[in-house]
Structure to design on (266 residues):
């Protein structure tokens, strides 16, 4: 007698979609609530990202914890209404934390993670505290999401030549164009519907390229470390770094655009 087949779980694509929707919901909730809630979400993500970065650097457990503790100091100071907030003081503390890590551990690559994780978090907190912080933060986050979706769709439908198969074998030029186009259309929608400033709208294609560059950089880090994913926390997605690699270079540039003096026709 043939034994009954075991129930099958959700496919990897289905799992990715479910987890992706949950992540977007958490991010939107944090952005809308702002304040301590958004800061706390950023802190949790930052500590996890620092741990994954340490793993990609082959750092032992104790050294990883040391780097996370070092990063926690500037992250704590960024707390709105409690600490000094995100600004020049916290930038100085990030620099100090990086020096501390490299002096104590002798690992320059590990110390670089302080900036890799800390700068985008500081940038997001700066963006969110602006008068139109909800709109600006959603723009910075969602342009990366739109870029990922557009790149995936164009890569699957069109395919074609690979950009850098030795680093990321699935990335195509069609995907790059599709990602830039999707992010640009999204920014144009925000501009005409919600008044996203023109300087941010026009800069979105460049930021979309930066987002995909961040994806390539993390792919290179993973190949160098000999791993498929930066972590296992997110089913179907890998680690937090795997999901936020595109945001890492985008957030600081987006913050600079937000803080630029406003020209009357922008």
């Amino acid at each position: 007698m043939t034994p009954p087949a075991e129930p099958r779980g959700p496919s990897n694509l289905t799992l990715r979609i479910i987890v992706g929707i949950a992540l977007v919901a958490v991010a939107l909730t944090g952005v809308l609530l702002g304040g301590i809630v958004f800061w706390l979400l950023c802190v949790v993500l930052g500590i996890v990202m620092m741990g994954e970065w340490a793993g990609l650097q082959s750092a032992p457990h104790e050294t990883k914890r040391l780097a996370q503790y070092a990063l926690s100091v500037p992250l704590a100071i960024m707390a709105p209404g409690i600490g000094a907030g995100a600004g020049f003081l916290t930038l100085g503390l990030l620099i100090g934390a990086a020096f501390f890590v490299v002096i104590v551990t002798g690992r320059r690559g590990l110390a670089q993670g302080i900036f890799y994780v800390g700068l985008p978090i500081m940038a997001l907190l700066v963006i969110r505290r602006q008068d139109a912080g909800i709109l600006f933060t959603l723009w910075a986050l969602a342009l990366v999401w739109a870029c990922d979706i557009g790149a995936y769709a164009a890569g699957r439908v069109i395919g074609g030549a690979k950009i850098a198969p030795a680093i990321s074998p699935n990335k195509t030029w069609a995907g790059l164009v599709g990602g830039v186009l999707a992010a640009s259309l999204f920014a144009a929608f925000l501009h005409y519907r919600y008044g996203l400033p023109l300087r941010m709208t026009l800069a979105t294609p460049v930021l979309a390229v930066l987002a995909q560059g961040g994806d390539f950089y993390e792919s290179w880090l993973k190949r160098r470390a000999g791993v498929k994913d930066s972590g296992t926390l997110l089913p179907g997605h890998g680690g937090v770094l795997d999901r936020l690699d595109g945001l890492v270079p985008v957030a600081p540039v987006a913050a600079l655009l937000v803080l630029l003096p406003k020209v009357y026709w922008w």
About this structure: Residues 1-7 have pLDDT under 50 and may be disordered. The chain has ten helices and no strands. The two ends are 74 Å apart (CA to CA). Residues 188 and 201 are 6 Å apart (CA to CA).
